[in-house]
Model the fold of this input.
Amino acid sequence: DYQKDTITDNRSFNGGWYSNRKGVDSRDSNRVGLTYDLVSENGVFDEMSARLNKQKIDFVANTEQHVKYFFGPTFQADEDRVDSRSFNQETNQFKVDFLKDLVGDVMSHSFVYGLEFQDKEFENKQMRRSDSLLNDLGWVDRNIGALIPVSEAQVSTLYAMDTIQFGENSKMRFGSRFDDYRYDAESNEDFSDSTGTLGETKFSAVNWAVGYEQNLSEALTASIGVSTGFRVPTIEEMYSTNGSVDDWNVIANPNLESESSTNFDVAIAGDYLGGSFRVGYFNSQYKDFIDYESRSGININTGLEDPNGYQVPVNSGRVDISGIEVSGRLNFSQGIGTGKGRYGTSFRAAYTDGEHSSGDPLYTVQPYSISLGLDYSSSEGNWGTNLYTTYTSGKKNSDSYKTQSDGSVVNPLFLSNAATVVDLSFFYKVNDKLRVVTGIYNLMDKEYYHWDNVRFIDQGDLRPGIGVTGDGIRRYSEPGRNARLSLSYTF
Done:
């Protein structure tokens, strides 16, 4: 059982139409499960693991605010408002996995196979409690419609994989899985179906994976793999609407197809007494890639005009994504001062590039990053410290433009900046059960932004009076210098 309450003083909304905006949110989730594990070396399996789970999540977001309505240059009316948005999800899951080993003189097989079934039910409601515009009717409750319809998702999965060991130095993997998704969405008093798009939708696919791993020496290993992937649209992408009719930001697309991919990867890794390293390259080619497209004019779902534009998830065709990842670690063990301890350094770098078949860059690709860590722990392992430095490059216009149908190029309104962020943390084990972790993060107090947090800002004003101008972008910045303290007790 998990319960969480959050109170937010949303000061960035003050000014213009809105003031005194506060969020009072609560989340309650609980899960009950049965597990059964069996070891039985028979002809079908050596080990079996079965899981039966039931989970329920209830989330309520209450937004309190004061609103000013302007009627011409001289007359205005005030309104106090409380918007309540509830999201409820119930999930039933059954999963069973099997393991079977066959050991031979020349080769050995390790089979894993199983199945999973999930049934998820979604429900959302939105209510608004407000006084009248002229404050003479008192408080009035009104249903302002749901963001998603009452929906059900049934997901069935079958999978199997065989790992074949040839002697001591060679290994191959062959795997396949079948996924079947069935969505059922219904209209009610909270969610109308004016376009007649709700109902049953089905997606299914068979995917496979092949991999080969070769030991080049006792410490050095090379691997290569080919696989296919499959992603279905979410309930939100197909059916949800965001906001009221005067400020659509995102409109769902019930005609979305599932996206598929073919993936290639190759890597070389070393594991030595003094450290380890890994260098890997990957390439993924997507078909019917799900991306967001800017639109303006008449909203196809509501028939209403959207002067500021809105976003629609679409199958944008073919997309190619490739990248390189490099990681490594050096371990040292020597005396420090009067005591002995263990210390080391770690390194990680990641670069990804992606583009559409049209030549436009893929908007969602993250800028490259490089991380360097220095750590020390006492010889007893009861305390230690870590200094972690991460450099993230800034997003450039050349990596984030979109070409419109008329040939014009649109760049984002805001770009993430290059930043070097330093974090210093310390842990101490009071005993075998109690552990303390504390640290100072963003030690140099750098102002920086994640690309995912700013890449949508140019796609339509949030609401009249609260669009991002000037220093308003700073509400999307990451925390400055901050300290954290956590205690964990294991029993």
User: Anything to note?
Assistant: Residues 235-239 form the longest helix (5 residues). The CA atoms of residues 157 and 179 lie 5 Å apart. Helices lie at 235-239, 451-454. The two ends are 17 Å apart (CA to CA).
